[in-house]
Structures are given as structure tokens and as C-alpha cells.
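Same chain as my last thread, 207 residues:
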Amino acid sequence: MSADLSPQLRRAILELPEEAWRAWKQESGGVAREWAEVPYVPSRQREKKDAPVYRYLAIRVRRPQGKLWPEGSDGRHFAVVTNRWELDGQAVLEWQRGKAGTIEHTHDILTNELGAGVYPSAKHGANAAWLRLQALTHNLLQLLKAVALPPQYTNARPKRLRFAVFSQIEQVVYHGRRLLMRLRAAVLEALVKPGWQRVLAATWDTS
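reply #2:
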């Protein structure tokens, strides 16, 4: 999570030697983003014996040489605190940056596209079951996009999936004591067969 840039932490970041900083990425306008491990241990009034050991990562954002930020500084500093030591620092920062705003995005989908914004009952238990059903539907759609569907649907919202995938199924029929699904040949060849092959080839972590 993002760390509070206290005066003590800021001082530790500013005291880092130049060789401690590692290039991360070059952004638009020539802005350079760098990161570094910070040997910083916060002081706490109470410390439990089994308290986790936190790791602090600093981020420095610099504009091209000769250009300053509006406040007159040559760089801006941020920090992230984590208890994950097994990952490279840059991997931790990219994961932390990538998840920013995802809960709002998920909440928007659940509320406006999967029906979680309107509860069906005045009973708390029924509404809780309804919300769990929408969350389960959301997770299944995410799994479907990640494993079975082509890459162009990776970021597709449920509305797009409804029109591009689910509405292509023409009819579900019961015949000869069997439940059958009728598909157009184009849908079978373009979506169903390739998707089924990707599902069979997927590896699942059961640990």
C-alpha cells in the first residue's frame, strides 16, 4: 500500500545514494520514473514480538534535465510499504500501481451491469445471497475472459460480452432426453472450438 511520507521517511529517501536508484520506466514528455529500496524502520510506541517486518520502496519521478516541477523541485518522491519480500521491488510497484482503482471498476460493473445495485427483497439473507450471486457471476466472467475467450475480449465488460458472445447462441433445446445447444457454424469455429482448446490446455494451480 502507499506509505505516508513522514518527515523521517522523506529524510531516509533523500539520503539514498544515487547508485541506489534503479530505472523503472520512461513516461510521456521525457519524465523518468525510478525506484529504490529504503533502509527505513519506523519507530512505534508498541511493537509485538511477532509483528511483520515491513519493506519500504521509494519512487522518484524526474522531469527532463533543466525542467522543474511547478513547485520548483527537480523530483517528486513517493513511497510504498509492503510485507512481500519474495518479489523484486519493481514487480511489487507495478502490481501496486496496476490494482489502483480496480475496486471502483468492479463495483461499477456489479452495480450497473450485473444487477447488484437493486436488491430483490426486503430480507437481509435474500439480499446477501443475491449479492454473492452477482460476485460469483463477475468472477466467472473474469475467468472466461482470461482462459477461454480471444485476447480482444480481455477487458470487455458484461454488456459487450452479452452482445458479442452470449447472444450468438441461437437456441437451447431438449431433445431425445438430452439438453442441446444450437450454434451457428461461424460461432462454433470462431469462439467455441478455440475456447475449448484453450480451456483444455490451461494449467490450474491447486496448491
